[in-house]
Amino acid sequence: MRTSPPTQTTQGQRRTALKPLLGLGLLMLAIGTGCATFTVVSEVTRKADGANTGALAVDVEIEDGVYKALLEMDPDSAKEWPMATKAKTSGWTVTGSGRKLRMTRQLSTLPAFQDALPGLAGLWDMGEFPITAMDVTVDEPNDEPPVYEYTATVVIPVQESPEDSASAPEEPQAPAQSASPDDFFGALAGAVASAVDETMTDPKVVALMAAAKKAGPPAFVVGVKLPGSIDEATVNGQPLGVISPDDRVTWTLSYANPGTYSLRAVAHLMKVEFTELAEAHTQGDDFKVRGRVTTKGGSDEVVPVTDAKVDLVITGPKGKPYGTPLTQPLTTDADGYFEWTSYFTADASIGAWKIVATAKKEKQSGSIEREFKVDELKPDVDANIRAIIAKWKAEPSVPNGISQSFIRDLNPIPTYGMRVNIKSWTDSRYEPYTCSALTIKTLKFLNGLRFSTTQSDRLLMGGVHYGPVTDGTGLIHVATALYPSANTTTGWRSGYVLDAWPNQTKESWGWAEWSAMNAGGAEPARFWNFGNMWSGEYPTSGSGGEYHPSVGEIPASIQGAKGTAVLTYSPVALLVSDASGRRTGQSGDGTLVNEIPGADQTLVNLPDGTQASLIALPDGDYNTVIRGTGDGDFHLETTNSEQLLDYGVHPIRSGEEATLKLNSVDLKQALALADGKTVMPSAAAADGGGGLGRLPMVAAIVVGLLAVLGGVVVVVRRGRAH
């Protein structure tokens, strides 16, 4: 069997294999002897509860000319450093590569800075890591203002010049006889000598070393950011270091100045303490916070901080901020004290609350965090509701319109409220007495109790909810519900409705009575045209049981141009169509259709057995059909912001039809009756007789709100059949 002879490793082959290793060594030599800036930053963060965390960041940046030379010589090594590879496998976060590299690590305690030093040194590829000791401490003796201290020892070694470090070693003594293949070390020595000689004459290496020499010695930068204000920074006991406006101190050490450097930074933190804060409150309680801000003076005595700005952040068990009233920045007095007085609402969240006070003055700051609890109030809900209603009736900001002579002089049939709304179109004296205006005033009154600075008023809201409600069809009328908050089954339908509009007298209506008059009632989200005007403000309008009332008088969404109305009532069905054949109203089979864009309609059952129908339309021309659904009389009126026209009362039988060309610009159109006769309208007095006097309350509300709806409205009331 033939065997191959042993492979001979020549000196030339060894020399070729060693050249890349020498190139990499020269690359690190270039970085270590010039052209790079190394920055090590320690940052300490103090939480409001006094706990400390930290972070370490190491930045390496190579001078631009040197980096270009490195790329020419060894692109792979220049783009991915061994230091970055080590950091990634040691729990550091590495960003950047090539010319700029950053390595960061989060620390959970102050001792972790000292513990992190061996790991930091383990990343170093250029000899001994310069920082040989590092520590961060905090001193809070006898609960005095905290003092943070950072210390570090940095050793900058003596550097050889690139030429000296990279010069070829002396020629080794030639062996007595030629080296054999087995004489490994002798052959290696010869290969090193030859490789070094060839490497140092390589144009790329020459360019690299020239760039390193031009860049000068490397810089080692140490930085630290401590809580509070850094007022002392020294090197070897002498004031030295750059303190930035954000209280970060930086020391820059050059490898051109070797030696041992002791770095120290001291920061004083303002101390914030609560001198008055109860550990427990009850819903509806007054809430007082008093505290003090101090710091250490030049001789370490505790001194008050005057004119410091203090921000309070208070959050409840649900994590939501305490929002009413909003806390404002406070200012400490001459003795360093700040004070804030407020209250808890009667339905404040039960459980653990948190308060954080943060004080700032110039570069100094400090904070404190404490917890307290709010216990449940045990109210007499029925007694509270009775007391609230009594206060509302006596409250002058919610007026009784009947006290005004210009309202008493109106025709009260069927209600004063209807007359007020119609008169408000042309006479501003009546505007404060419309249903929307009275509801807004009522809500403001109830908000005033809920957010009152008087505890006895706030406590009335214990166990009580309130909010706006609308008629069952969601088109026209709005009032205010007042009810027990504990009733989650029927909600606001378990209590009362405060409605000062119908009789222009503040009245509390039981749910059954008010709903019979207003088609069952509904939440504001049922408003067809307006949408939910109080969205997210009250329990009845989607707040989830909370209260976030707006500060505006009337939501912009309910403001609009004044329009035109057509009113009818009798045993009839009403159907309106536009020029495109789109319909709104009640079709022949009794189905309600609403095809006309911007149109609204409603049907309301009244306590006297009659039924009102209403259609509101945008401005334009329409065909109106009034179809008899029984034998009886029907009444028709048209109105807009300028006039009110009455067609009178006319008989109609089941299946018969009357028609009307409805024009929003010219209301004076002929009504064609089922017997072929035509009727022209006459002016109707809003405060006197005429057919409008028989208009039911709900239909009248619609008329009164034409200023909101805009366009044309048709209302039908069905009377009792013969």
- Percent of residues in beta strands: 25-35%
Helix content: 10-25%
The low-confidence parts are 1-34, 162-192, 552-565, 686-722
Number of strands: 39
Q: State the distance separating the first and last CA atoms.
A: 131 Å
In order across it, which strands form the biggest sheet?
3-4-2-1-7-11-10
SS-based class: alpha+beta
Shape: elongated
**What's the Cα radius of gyration?**
44 Å
What is the residue-averaged pLDDT?
76
Counting H and I runs of at least 4 residues, what is the number of helices?
17
Characterize the structure shown.
With 722 residues, the protein is of the alpha+beta class. The chain is built from 17 helices and 39 strands. A seven-stranded mixed β-sheet has the order 3-4-2-1-7-11-10. Mean pLDDT is 76; it is low at 1-34, 162-192, 552-565 and 686-722.
